[in-house]
């Protein structure tokens, strides 16, 4: 039987329950929800499937050690004991990233440096040569998590974060990360069949992620992963996982996707991204003002959108006026539609004048709120 590993998938804050559900649907073992992600167990097959299939995860980390870490010496010694040569060639490239909280060692940079020294010293001792320090695309990325003087050393099986799916060819000023967009689609409760409308579509991230979900398409199919650069890499296993994912994708010619944006360039961005992602749905795109939003009566679709936020897109007072006008339009024109609206602040969402369930999320370090409602 293949080795079982302790794995941890990270995700945007607030999406932990969605990620938990995704892992359950992928039939991963011993799933446990934590802050910022979920723990689970699995071997190399699960590592490949998690990377290919998870929509809301940013990274999948594989734990190699966990130990009490009251200070510098404990960190260095433990890091030197790990058999890094199992995964990395002596002449390969290495990157260490640390997150440090409530611990005697307080500086992330210092922790990264010490772990890098320990790894390199181990290689020099055994092979006379050492790996060099690389970038995001390094052959081995090591994550150090130091919390209340307990350290976890983990290998990053993902490499370039999972929100970079490989389909984005165009972006506006404030695109949603793909992982957060997929989380909104999943949180919306959308049935994966009814029309999806995004009247502030920007670069179309929500429409693309909704279409990929409806098609049963693995979001990671168009890219490579960190673990594929390791010495332990089993190409056949990954080929099989990719083949399964390719076979699972279905065309969705009946799916209606409706997108608009005030700016014609954004509409073209959406068109380009939908095409690059291989979306086969029936697509209607136009430049239009959300304040005149007029969804087709009787469609009973899903309005799924990310309204402009004061900080990034325009000035706060104008944003509130925009929310007011859009809310009025929804109440007057969108009977029968389900709404999932992401806004920057509770006050902005209040201006919509629509009651519903609110979920606090985060876009990077920026808090945001999802409002879900159904219009009778
Ligand atoms: C936060 S961005 C949406 C980002 C999008 N979800 C993405 O991932 O690229 C908001 C979008 O609303 C558009 N916008 C601003 N005012 C608008 C209006 N009155 N009507 C329609 N779109 C508007 C902006 O051009 C911008 O593309």
Short description:
The protein is α/β, with parallel strands linked by helices and 376 residues long. Helices cover 32% and strands 26% of the residues. The strands form two sheets. An eight-stranded mixed beta sheet has the order 2-3-1-4-8-7-5-6. Strands 11-10-9-12-13-15-14 form a seven-stranded mixed beta sheet.
Secondary structure layout plus pairing:
Layout: E1 5-10, H1 16-25, E2 29-34, E3 37-42, H2 44-53, E4 59-68, H3 72-81, E5 93-101, H4 108-127, E6 132-133, E7 140-147, E8 150-156, H5 178-188, E9 196-198, H6 205-214, H7 235-248, E10 256-261, H8 264-276, E11 282-287, E12 302-306, H9 316-333, E13 338-343, H10 346-350, E14 357-363, E15 366-374
Parallel strand pairs: 5-6, 5-7, 9-10, 9-12, 10-11, 12-13
Antiparallel strand pairs: 1-3, 1-4, 2-3, 4-8, 7-8, 13-15, 14-15
Bound molecules: S-adenosylmethionine.
S-adenosylmethionine (SAM) binds next to α6.
